[in-house]
Amino acid sequence: MHLRSSILGAGTLSVALLSLVGCAQQPILPQVASAPNPFAYDKISSLCQVAPLQTAPNGALSVDMTVGSGEGVCAVSVSKEGGGSYASFGVNAPPEHGKAFLYNYDGRTYIRYTPVTAYNGTDQFGVELIPEHAQPRRELTVKVKVEAVGVTAPKAAVAAAPSKAAAVSSKQKAASTHGVHKAASRYRKARIHH
């Protein structure tokens, strides 16, 4: 009986060691230093630059954002003093040339902006951030610069003046075409008279 339990113990230990070795051989995935995208269907704009959050003397917050037109979303994340996401929030003065979407994820509050397609210019919207309990609300102004990306207008092509050889060639072509019409015309007349 003692031998049997030793064999079972050794077998269990072997299985445990093999499973640990198997785990050690798995590659460790690198961490990505970008805003999380819990909505996988949203495309992140190739041009998404967000300046550091600014705080005015009166406590009002502002942030500048540059985003590509028609390319997808750009996001900025904020957290309340002491860390954590805001208990509630709202858009106060919505953007005129895009959409704003706010959500909490992983202890932070995210403000996403999507410009309308083909818009190129500036936009702005306000966000009201509401912390827990009796803490004062925070006002955030998001100033957006929307730029067209990935599309460049082609330069107008200038047609070159025809060369002398090309001019002679087109005259010869016209003369030979005229000769074909003349011959066809004689053939028609001959058929009509017969």
Briefly say what this structure is.
The chain has helices at residues 2-24, 164-193, and strands spanning 48-50, 54-55, 61-68, 74-78, 88-92, 98-105, 108-115, 121-130, 138-147. It has 194 residues and is an alpha+beta fold.
What count of helical segments does DSSP give? 2
Largest sheet: 6 strands, mixed
The structure class reads alpha+beta
The residue ranges in which pLDDT falls below 50 over 5 or more consecutive positions are 12-34
CATH architecture of one domain: Sandwich
How far apart, in Å, are the first and last alpha carbons? 125 Å
What proportion strand? 25-35%
N-to-C SSE series? HEEEEEEEEEH
Overall pLDDT confidence: 74
Compute the CA-based radius of gyration: 36 Å
| Text of the CATH class of one domain | Mainly Beta
The CATH homologous superfamily of one domain: Immunoglobulins
Give the overall form.
elongated
Number of DSSP-assigned strands? 9
- Output the CATH topology of one domain: Immunoglobulin-like
- Percent helix, as a range, is 25-40%
Description:
This protein has 194 residues and is α+β, with helices and mostly antiparallel strands. The chain is 27% helix and 30% strand. It has a domain at 48-147: Immunoglobulin-like, CATH 2.60.40.10. It has two helices and nine strands; from the N terminus they run H-E-E-E-E-E-E-E-E-E-H. The strands form two sheets. Strands 1, 2, 3, 5, 8 and 9 form a six-stranded mixed β-sheet that branches. Strand 6 (98-105) and strand 7 form a beta hairpin.
